[in-house]
Recover the amino acids of this structure.
């Protein structure tokens, strides 16, 4: 992951410098899109590094939520870059750039395609949620680099098609905006402590209720602490005669949650069917 991040950062800088030297806004836009890849890889690496740090008395979940804070900064940066690219593209459509060095533009685009291909090869065997997200980011940038290369070839064949460069820039800006929008939704989902998108609460409840001795499950809550780390709390109702089997019931329920849904962080309260809830006591 660290090596992939380094390669992505080198490609980003190369595209930014190449775009400035060649006068290609599309290449500069691709550098901006590459920033989303660098951010995605950095977040994945942060999750690994900070996830290994122990919790303390003030941060009982550890430092995993730093990933979300970093993602918020990333979104703000992406929106600023997108706004600048769109503004510059519209200006260039009104007043075409006098000259674009197509050789530099194509050469840097080739570097981008090759570098992204190497990163995709490294990440294809990693099935973690962070790695899969980073893989999709890099795949999108590989497509953008191919588009820039094709645009350079088209303008070389038809010099009168200078409008291709700003149009490609607008397309890449929309791609960045789409990625930023998805990131905003993901951050909002986590901060609202909503149920992870890939989990079905009813299915989780049914799986827990199938454990030996369990009658029902209620007050079930599932939320995301950070990417790939999910938490669950619930009340499990058991027969009165099963109360002495608490450890066995907990082991069964936790094993089911871990095996079926990859939920490791659980807080489960076991209570008998005859247990009187506080609200019921107040009512009587």
């Amino acid at each position: 992951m660290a090596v992939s991040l380094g390669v992505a950062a080198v490609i980003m800088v190369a595209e930014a410098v190449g775009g400035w030297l060649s006068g290609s806004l599309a290449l500069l836009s691709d550098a901006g899109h590459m920033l989303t890849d660098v951010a995605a890889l950095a977040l994945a690496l942060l999750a690994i590094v900070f996830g290994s740090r122990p919790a303390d008395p003030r941060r009982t979940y550890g430092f995993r939520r730093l990933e979300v804070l970093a993602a918020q900064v990333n979104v703000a940066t992406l929106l600023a870059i997108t706004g600048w690219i769109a503004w510059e593209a519209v200006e260039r459509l009104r007043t075409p750039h006098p000259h674009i060095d197509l050789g530099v533009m194509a050469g840097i685009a080739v570097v981008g395609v090759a570098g992204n291909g190497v990163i995709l090869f490294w990440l294809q065997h990693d099935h973690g949620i962070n790695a899969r997200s980073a893989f999709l980011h890099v795949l999108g940038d590989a497509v953008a680099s191919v588009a820039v290369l094709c645009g350079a070839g088209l303008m070389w064949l038809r010099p009168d098609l200078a409008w291709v460069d700003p149009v490609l820039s607008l397309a890449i800006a929309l791609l960045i905006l789409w990625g930023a929008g998805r990131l905003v939704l993901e951050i909002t989902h986590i901060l609202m402590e909503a149920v992870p998108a890939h989990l079905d609460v009813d299915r989780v409840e049914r799986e827990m209720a199938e454990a030996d001795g369990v009658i029902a499950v209620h007050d079930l809550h599932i939320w995301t602490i950070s990417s790939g780390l999910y938490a669950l709390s619930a009340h499990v109702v058991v027969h009165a005669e099963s109360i002495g089997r608490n450890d066995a019931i907990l082991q069964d329920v936790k094993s089911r949650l871990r095996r079926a849904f990859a939920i490791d962080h659980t807080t489960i309260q076991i209570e008998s069917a005859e247990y009187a809830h506080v609200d019921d006591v107040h009512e009587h």
Remarks:
- Residues 66-94 form the longest helix (29 residues).
- DSSP finds nine helices and three strands in the chain.
- Residues 280-284 have pLDDT under 50 and may be disordered.
